[in-house]
Specification:
CATH architecture: 3-Layer(aba) Sandwich
Number of domains: 1
Strand content: 15-25%
CATH topology: Rossmann fold
CATH superfamily: 5'-nuclease
Order of helices and strands: EHHEHHEHHEHEEE
Distance between the termini: 12 Å
Radius of gyration: 14 Å
CATH class: Alpha Beta
Helix content: 40-55%
Largest sheet: 5 strands, parallel
């Protein structure tokens, strides 16, 4: 597949941690994707926290960004304003900050492809309130 893909925390952790149940499925997605892969600083922070304090796992995570496999997009003042709007809208779910940054990034890039293990959240979220996400794996 090709195009722009949004990388979420759960999938990123599963790529790094071979003991994760979704590891193989996530590796297959990564190997078959032919477009660009984007994420946010919030997702990177969550991922570094969840892979644990061991340097090796954190190094692998950071190398995804450093070697250009994943493009890291910082939040702007405008995007943070939109994040706040979305977190308010989806407060009953609730939507966490990292997910909100990915939804906003999807709106900015015009992509609805998301690489996530959070099917519940991303099946509910909509881009600009209308367009559903296409979830991998």
């Amino acid at each position: 597949m090709a195009g722009d893909l949004l990388l979420d925390t759960g999938a990123w952790v599963a790529l790094i941690d071979r003991s994760e149940a979704a590891h193989k499925a996530c590796v297959e997605v990564l190997e078959s994707w032919r477009g660009r892969i984007f994420t946010t600083e919030a997702v990177l922070t969550e991922t570094l926290y969840l892979v644990g304090p061991e340097w090796e796992a954190q190094r692998i995570c950071l190398e995804f960004v450093l070697r250009g496999a994943v493009l890291l997009v910082p939040s702007s003042r405008e995007s943070l304003s939109r994040v706040a709007t979305l977190m308010e809208k989806y407060r009953d779910l609730p939507m966490d900050f990292a997910d909100a940054t990915l939804v906003v990034l999807g709106e900015e890039l015009g992509t609805n492809w998301v690489f996530t293990l959070d099917r519940r959240g991303f099946s509910t979220y909509r881009l600009r309130g209308r367009r559903p996400f296409r979830i991998l794996p």
